[in-house]
Each structure stands twice: as C-alpha cells, then as structure tokens.
Amino acid sequence: MSRSFERYQRRKLISSYFSVVLSIALVLFLLGVLGLLVINTNKLADHFKEQVAVTVFLKDNAKEVEITQLQKSLAMAPYTRSARFISKEEAAEAHSKEIGENFLDFLGHNPLQNSIDVHLKADYVDADSIAQIADRIAQKDYIAEVAYDQPLVSLLNENVKRISFWILVASGAFTLIAVLLINSSIRLSIYSKRFIIKTMQMVGATKRFIRRPFILKSVQLGIIGAVIALLSIGGLLYYLSETYPELGLLDDKRLLAILFGAILTGGIVITWISTYIATQRFLNLRTDDLYY
Q1: Considering 9, 17, 69, 292, which has the largest number of Cβ atoms within 10 A of its Cβ?
Q2: Where in the chain are all domains bearing CATH 3.30.70.3040?
Q3: Residue 256 CA to chain centroid, in angstroms?
Q4: 53-148 — its CATH code?
C-alpha cells in the first residue's frame, strides 16, 4: 500500500513538473517568435519596399549606346538595388502570357516600348524620394516616361508604420501575458505543496530555508523550458531561412544572440520571482487558511 502511494505521488510530481515545463516552454516560444517578428520588422518592410519597381520607358529612337550607358548609370546609383533592361519583345511575350493570347496577331505590330525596371533600395522608397529620382531620370531626351505606382508606395509606407506600431503594442501586451501565465503555473505547483511548506515552518525551519529548494527546482524547470523554447525557435528560424533566404533572418547574429539570451534569462528570472512570491504567500498564511 505504501509503495503504491509513493508511486502515485511520484507520478503526480512528475506530471506537475511536466506541465510547468511545458507551459514555460510554450509561453517562451511564443514570446521568442514575437521577438523575432519585432527584430525582423524592418527587414520584412524593406523586402516588400524593394519589390516596388520604377519603370523607365525608352523612346524607339533611343540608341543602343545610350540605353547601355543609362542602365549602367542606374545600376551604379546609390539609390538602386537592381536595374534590368526589358526589350519590347520580352515585354510583349510577358504580356501575352498574362492575358492568355498573343495580342500581336490582333494588332499587327508591337506597341510596347523598351524599358528598364529599377528596383530601389528600401530607404528611398517613399513618395518624395521616388518623385525626385523619377524627375532626374526623365530629363534625358531619349526617355519617353518614368512610371511607378504612386498610390502603392504611399499605402506601403503607411501600412509599415501602422504595423510596426501595433507589433510593439502586441509585444508589450504579450510579455505581460507571458509573465502572468508562467506565474500562474508556478503558483499552482507551489499550491499543491502548501501543507509541506507549513509543516516545515511549524517545526522551526526558517523562511529562507523553506524557499530555497522550491526556488532552485523552479529555476531548473525554467531553464529546461527555456532550452526547449530556444531549440524550437532555432528550428523555426532554420526552416524559414531555408524557405525564404532573401529575408536574411540569420544575418544579424548579435541580435539573435541577445534574443536567445533574453529568453533564457527571462525563463530564469520569471520563475525565480514567481516562486518567491508564491512561497512567501503560503508562508504568511495561517494554518486554517490553507484549506481555502
């Protein structure tokens, strides 16, 4: 009978530890993912900004030398990420694929123009900068038009600012929720041992002596939960970097190291504080109050 009770108590204890570790790992994982999102918000915004193209349409009488020089000068400009020449034949073929039929057979000639697609660096993708760049390029005689999606640029910048703000708000809110959830798990774990705490106190053990093993065990569980969260985040980072290498999620090793260190430290500090407060609460309770 005694052995079966001990086995039951051991299973119950292991189950309690497992639930605490799992809750800590899950909360820290979600918090880490949110941290990754905060760190890479600018990268994601820059990635989408650099997809906006400024198209330089060339007149039919533009000489090949002029086109080559223009493309090289645009490619070397400080605001340019890439500059690609698209002939009128390439443009016609792409347009035919897009509409599903060869419009040249219907028209009898190619009305499209040779062009250069210029993708700007993210810092220059705003309405004022693009307007200045477009005006400067359009001054050349052999350029017919410089076109870009102005409403898209304005909308993109507005949405980037709005999303960045709400990500910061969500980060603050979720950090608070994470602390409360971990604290709740620790308190439930300590609650199941409240009679042990009071018994130790009644036989003369000091509060510090009683708290120490609970804090050490909780910190151990916090470290285990943090390590599980870090391994999960590392796996997610590897998958995303392999799937979307253009985002450069692994480029900034220093920020990633800070994030990983913050998650590990958070797992330790939160569990330490939560355990201290929970044990202190039960140490200060009267014996009669333990049953409520």
Answers
A1: 17
A2: 53-148
A3: 11
A4: 3.30.70.3040
